[in-house]
Design goal:
Shape of chain B: globular
Strand order of the largest sheet of chain A: 6-7-8-3-9-10
Oligomer: heterodimer
Largest sheet of chain B: none
CATH class of the largest domain in chain B: Mainly Alpha
Helix content of chain B: over 70%
Strand content of chain A: 15-25%
Radius of gyration of chain A: 19 Å
Structural class of chain B: mainly alpha
Structural class of chain A: alpha/beta
Helix content of chain A: 25-40%
Low-confidence stretches of chain B: 1-11, 327-345
Radius of gyration of chain B: 22 Å
CATH topology of chain A: Rossmann fold
Mean pLDDT of chain B: 84
Mean pLDDT of chain A: 85
CATH architecture of the largest domain in chain B: Orthogonal Bundle
Order of helices and strands of chain B: HHHHHHHHHHHHHHH
CATH architecture of chain A: 3-Layer(aba) Sandwich
Shape of chain A: globular
Chain lengths: 258, 345
């Protein structure tokens, strides 16, 4: 079976059609058609203000689209609340680390694991029961390189460490679809390398969509790249195609001198 | 490494201290009517539970309800009515009052949790004012401005006219309420409450239906406020409009801030101070209760935002932390006979 045939035979995990977001006349996302095939890493790139994060917020229910639809595994999720989308196996990380400042790293991951298992309503039980997640939580923290810091409150982490914790939280939900908003921003070279390795490992049984500025990361990871500009899709294809696209070069470097 | 040690040292009170405090707390609860006028002792514990009930919302979930008098007061009326109509021990009346209030809180909560911050506070205040209006107008049931008089203290045929004995009859109910609040705070559910306080969006992204959790905390809080208000009404023998008035909502917020929000026991301390102070001022004939409470509020907010309990806990924790930290430094120095590594964080 050829590659095209197999792609045609599988339904996209995530699909948007004519998705738009209008902020009082400013079209942050405009008519975006996106199709993410299962098992792939799909990168969203584009200059600042291109609408990447707005698109992420639409996909995860944090913003309601002005028009258009979003389907996840063939089901229409347009207008659903963030927690409903999360419960459908979609986990996200936030561009600006979004954590529970006073809770420790272990407590963060435990909260995520507890959310996955749906045991959060048990107000008559002791929170000591959460210790059964301890091993799993430590394992996840190890994976992102925070293994020795499980007792530290998140508020005292450095920027790059917060990004790593974001990743651990997203992974704790065992998502089918992982949405990462600039997972390597603010990380040192070593941490970037480790994060790339981690994403390569976790992509084995899930689909990943990532917003990324670091082109090296995109080239290393992405099967498919979508370039956004002014809220619209400017180009789409694999990394090489996109990189050589004249429109993309213009968008990034300005008008080329002929 | 130092950071890990520091956290280990500060991760909570030591077990000895914890048990010690529990014993002292219980002894205080049992000895209170020996130390003061028994009805005041009961007021302290009742207001204490009321303040703790609010702390579940305010301190743990980060929702400022400025209308909690609605639940305390409605239960005072409902408990009073049940106690007068039904010849059962007052425990049942209090439970009935609290359940009525929980049922009342559910629709209010569902409407309020859509807002947050100051808007949430305003909506809760608006609902409380509606309840006040109803209590004032519905004279046939509430007695209007005269209040609901003659609430009996029935208790398995035991004579409880003496407030000293009534205190001990009512104490288990209030302690059970406090125990319930403690259980909730230290449960998987309690973790989610704190998560919502710290970062709602993140809690949502982890799949927690935040609004549903908020409704549950709200109803739970109203129920506990109802238990407190019911006992208060039986203790005083009447329910008055004061119980549903907005200043009552304000007073319980001040108790929380003074004692320390999100510390569970701090609000009990805050209640003890405010109740005693009011009693002292009233006995001394000084008509400046609101002024004094207001000054206390301002001073607390300006000088020690953590409240009394929160400040003490902070000081104790940072002291133990420094002690452990310096001990760790010495170990490092001995083991490595090198200058201690630069401290981080």
């Amino acid at each position: 079976m050829s590659a095209t045939a197999s792609q045609a035979g599988t339904n996209p995990v995530l699909r948007t059609s004519a998705l738009s977001k209008d902020f009082n006349g400013f079209l942050a996302v405009s008519d975006v058609d996106l199709s993410v095939a299962p098992g792939t890493v799909h990168a969203l790139v584009g200059p600042n203000g291109a609408g990447k994060t707005t698109l992420f917020n639409l996909l995860t229910g944090f913003l309601k689209p002005s028009s258009g639809t979003i389907t996840i595994e063939g089901r229409d999720v347009t207008g659903m609340r963030p927690e409903q989308i999360a419960q459908r196996g979609v986990a996200r990380s936030f561009q600006i680390a979004s954590l529970f400042e006073e809770l420790t790293l272990a407590e963060h991951v435990e909260l995520a694991l507890q959310g996955r298992d749906g045991t959060g309503y048990r107000f008559w039980r002791s929170d000591k029961r959460l210790r059964r997640y301890a091993a799993e939580a430590d394992g996840l923290l190890d994976q992102v390189g925070l293994g020795d810091m499980s007792g530290v409150p998140a508020g005292s982490l450095a920027y790059g460490q917060k990004r790593a914790l974001e990743l651990a939280l997203a992974l704790a939900l065992s998502p089918k679809l992982l949405l990462l908003d600039e997972p390597t921003a603010g990380m040192g070279v070593e941490d970037v390398a480790r994060t790339i390795e981690l994403i390569k490992r976790v992509r084995a049984d899930r689909t990943v969509v990532l917003v990324e500025h670091n082109m090296q990361v995109v080239g290393d990871l992405a099967d498919q790249v979508t370039v956004l500009q002014f809220g619209k899709v400017l180009a789409e294809g694999d990394y090489e195609q996109v990189r050589n696209d004249p429109d993309v070069i213009t968008a990034y470097l300005g008008e080329a001198v002929a | 490494m130092i950071l890990t040690r520091l956290v280990k040292a500060t991760s909570g009170w030591s077990p000895v201290l914890r048990i010690g405090m529990l014993v002292v707390g219980l002894a205080l609860a049992l000895g209170l009517p020996w130390m003061m006028y028994p009805p005041i002792a009961l007021d302290i514990v009742a207001w204490g539970l009321f303040a703790v009930a609010l702390d579940l919302l305010l301190g743990y979930t980060g929702m400022l309800s400025f209308g909690h008098a609605a639940f305390w007061g409605s239960s005072a009326y409902a408990t009073g009515i049940i106690a007068k109509q039904v010849g059962l021990p007052f425990y049942f009346a209090v439970l009935g009052g609290a359940l009525v209030v929980a049922a009342l809180a559910l629709p209010i909560a569902m409407l309020c949790v859509r807002r947050s911050g100051i808007y949430f506070a305003m909506v809760t205040l608006a609902f409380a004012q509606m309840i006040y209006f109803i209590a004032n107008q519905w004279r046939a049931v509430t007695g209007g401005e005269n209040g609901l008089q003659g609430v009996p203290r029935r208790f398995f045929g035991v004579d409880l006219t003496d407030s000293f004995y009534f205190y001990y009859a009512a104490l288990p109910l209030l302690l059970l309420g406090l125990l319930g609040a403690w259980r909730v705070v230290h449960s998987p559910f309690g973790r989610v409450m704190v998560a919502i306080r710290e970062n709602q969006a993140r809690a949502r992204a982890l799949g927690y239906p935040v609004d549903r959790y908020k409704v549950q905390v709200f109803v739970l809080s109203a129920f506990l406020a109802g238990v407190a208000g019911g006992v208060y009404a039986v203790s005083h023998g009447f329910a008055s409009l004061q119980e549903v008035y907005w200043t009552t909502s304000g007073k319980v917020v001040v108790m929380n801030i003074l004692g320390g929000m999100g510390t569970l026991w701090g609000p009990v301390l805050g209640a003890a101070i405010i109740v005693q102070l009011e009693d002292y001022l009233a006995t001394a004939g000084i008509d400046a209760t609101n002024l004094v409470t207001g000054v206390i509020f301002v001073v607390t907010v300006l000088l020690f935002r953590r409240g009394i309990w929160g400040t003490v806990r902070y000081l104790v924790r940072s002291r133990t932390a420094t002690r452990h930290d310096s001990a760790a430094d010495e170990e490092d120095a001995e083991a490595e006979s090198r200058p201690a590594p630069a401290r981080q964080g």
